[in-house]
């Protein structure tokens, strides 16, 4: 759902709190070509696959995807795209909180990077955009620590390095 003027309001609020950006604001809604290119590269490298599992199926097996479609070779029709988990990131170093241990089951989960409805997942978009913008240090709210372990998985797939810091003030 889109609300006219919402994006401009958010940008003004960020400026009010003293947050400024180095260049033009990058809109994910205008970066679909870059995300499609990343998806194609991941597919060519054998690092992703199509998945037709529903949320209901995943909930029925405990809520964590079990890799069911990894070897089924589905086509793109009515399918999401998942990253092929090869080297799970079960821990990473946060510059503020030290070593963070991720939930083992979640760390091993092949997560969605492109939804079946055509939307690109945050975990793909943020890695592609961070690389494009030359981001080397990432500050996110403490509530995104678990999400960061998934982004950490995607980062090695693109051969990127970035420092991380999760601040309680930024979201917990």
Automatic annotation (TrEMBL):
Keyword Cytoplasm: no
Source organism of this protein record: Escherichia coli
GO molecular function, one term: ATP binding
Protein name according to UniProt: Glutamyl-Q tRNA(Asp) synthetase
EC number from the UniProt entry: 6.1.1.-
Keyword vocabulary terms for this entry: Aminoacyl-tRNA synthetase, ATP-binding, Ligase, Nucleotide-binding, Protein biosynthesis
Gene3D superfamilies tied to this protein: Glutamyl-tRNA Synthetase, Domain 3, HUPs
Enzyme class: ligase
An example Gene Ontology biological process: glutamyl-tRNA aminoacylation
Glutamyl/glutaminyl-tRNA synthetase class Ib catalytic domain location: 4-161
GO cellular component, one term: cytosol
Family as reported in the entry's similarity comment: Belongs to the class-I aminoacyl-tRNA synthetase family.
Family annotation (SUPFAM superfamilies): Nucleotidylyl transferase
């Amino acid at each position: 759902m889109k609300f006219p003027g919402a994006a401009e309001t958010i940008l003004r609020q960020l400026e009010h709190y003293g947050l400024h950006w180095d260049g033009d604001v990058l809109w994910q809604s205008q970066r679909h070509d870059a995300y499609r290119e990343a998806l194609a590269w991941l597919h060519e490298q054998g690092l992703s696959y199509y998945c037709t599992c529903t949320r209901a199926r995943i909930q029925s097996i405990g809520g964590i995807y079990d890799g069911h479609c990894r070897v089924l070779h589905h086509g793109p029709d009515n399918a999401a795209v998942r990253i092929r988990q090869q080297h799970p990131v079960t821990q990473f170093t946060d510059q503020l909180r030290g070593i963070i241990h991720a939930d083992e089951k979640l760390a091993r989960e092949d997560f969605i990077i492109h939804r079946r409805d055509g939307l690109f997942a945050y975990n793909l978009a943020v890695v592609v955009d961070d690389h494009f913008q030359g981001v080397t240090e990432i500050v996110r709210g403490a509530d995104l620590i678990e999400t960061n372990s998934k982004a950490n998985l995607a980062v090695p797939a693109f051969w990127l390095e970035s420092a991380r810091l999760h601040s309680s003030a930024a979201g917990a």
